[in-house]
Amino acid sequence: MPRETNPSGRASRRARLDKTVGAVEVSDMSRASSSPSRAAAGPAAERADAIIVGGGLVGLSLGLAFARAGLETAVVDRAPAAALADEAFDGRASAIAYASYRALEGLGVWRHVAAAEPIREIRVTDDESPLFLHYDHAEIGDAPFGYMVENRVMRRALYAALAETPTLRLIAPAEVRAAPRGDAAAEVRLTDGRLFKAPLLVAADGKDSPIRQAAGIRFFGWRYPQDGIVCTVVHERPHHGIAEERFLPAGPFAILPLTENRVSLVWTERTDLAPAIMALDEAGFRAELEARFGDYLGRLAPAGPRWRYPLAFRLAESYVRPRLALIGDAAHLIHPIAGQGLNLGLRDVAALAEVVADAARLGLDIGAPAVLERYERWRRFDNLLLAGITDGLNRLFSNRVEPFRMARDLGLDMVNRLPPLKRFFMRHARGTVGELPRLLKGEAL
Ligand SMILES: Cc1cc2nc3c(=O)[nH]c(=O)nc-3n(C[C@H](O)[C@H](O)[C@H](O)COP(=O)(O)OP(=O)(O)OC[C@H]3O[C@@H](n4cnc5c(N)ncnc54)[C@H](O)[C@@H]3O)c2cc1C
């Protein structure tokens, strides 16, 4: 096996990072690296064990996981790091399932999270039905279902963990111009001329994933006729860590507890109506909000900007190609109805990091097809299942047609009457169901 494709051993990795080779053409990688004339002509390539394109919440988490496994890793993002951590970049907060929290703790991220609100109870109500679901974390143990964390708070925590990790480099702002893959290595060429080379390339570059497109991986999906309006609301009475999901005719209206007397709102609205709601003045917006929210938290005051996210469903037909793996939204984009998109991405992180760490320990090529296929087999079915469930729930609850209404009443009633089923769903909300990678079990990588 050529040495450059075998990332075992810290000394050899460091040697390879310091080593530079000439620029190479996609179709001719092996020849180029042994050709002194071409090496002299092109820009020097920096070597790493893995290159991750996309420094969002998922890409950075994977970078930290790879670094824990002893791999020299470079993460490339086109946005400047300061902009990514700014509130103006992303107004969302994420429900981090308990299993995802364990992974972030294991990666040294959680201790940098400045503010996290435990989710202790979940209430699901259907606008037109007296029935509702009530999950209380105490019914299945002490741990909460998870934590609500603002995305910008999570990004800052990831950057703090990154600053403590010498084997992980964030290259930002840096746009990827091309990412050709050869037999022995993948390359990432940046628009500023820099060149990186590694045996494994990971696309964590979000829903429109330029890397996925360049690799010719198609996806299956559609745009929902719904947008997600997101904002933070300050309220008078304490929320007691209760996350509330109301199913209204336009779609789910989620009230998610943040620290202090604040909640994050994910208000699903018809795409044709969302622009008018976004354009309302403060009094008009508050009136619409109160009509949906009710008064159980006392007086309400929207705080900060409003955000609008078009909602879509996408599943990549494959998660891997030679020397390439897709993770996070680059591999699957789902409706935010159950707050699971990031959690699925973090499950990808834990699974990919585990198969790669296992291969590296054995001295194997971390970008070999057998390693990447193990990752794909592990994650594709789980993601497909959850994507299908979230899509089905959204269709079932976002309409007023009578048979659908009866079906959801029946469903709510059944879950309430069957404690084992209810406990299963509660464990699912915690993310502790299924064949979990070590990081999600709170174990070392
Ligand atoms: C309204 C809403 C609410 C949500 N709530 C939740 C929730 O409560 N819980 C949950 O689990 N999930 C939630 N999600 C889903 C979650 O936000 C996403 O799944 C998650 O943020 C995806 O992260 P990512 O890192 O895969 O992608 P992204 O965050 O899109 O990151 C991709 C990164 O790649 C970079 N990039 C792209 N192209 C290039 C390029 N060519 N070169 C360099 N860099 C590039 C971008 O700059 C970006 O930083 C929600 C989603 C929405 C819309």
Compute the gyration radius: what is it? 23 Å
Q: What's the shape? A: globular
CATH architecture of one domain: 3-Layer(bba) Sandwich
Molecules bound to protein:
flavin-adenine dinucleotide
The average pLDDT is 87
Distance between the termini: 25 Å
Largest pleated sheet: 8 strands, mixed
Q: Which CATH class of one domain applies here?
A: Alpha Beta
Alpha-beta content class: alpha/beta
User: Helix content range of the residues, please?
Assistant: 25-40%
What is the CATH H-level superfamily of one domain? FAD/NAD(P)-binding domain
Count of distinct strands? 22
Give the strand order, joined by hyphens, for the main sheet.
Answer: 8-7-16-17-18-15-19-22
CATH fold node name of one domain: FAD/NAD(P)-binding domain
Beta-strand percentage range? 25-35%
Number of helices: 14
What are the low-pLDDT stretches, counting only 5+ consecutive residues below 50? 1-40
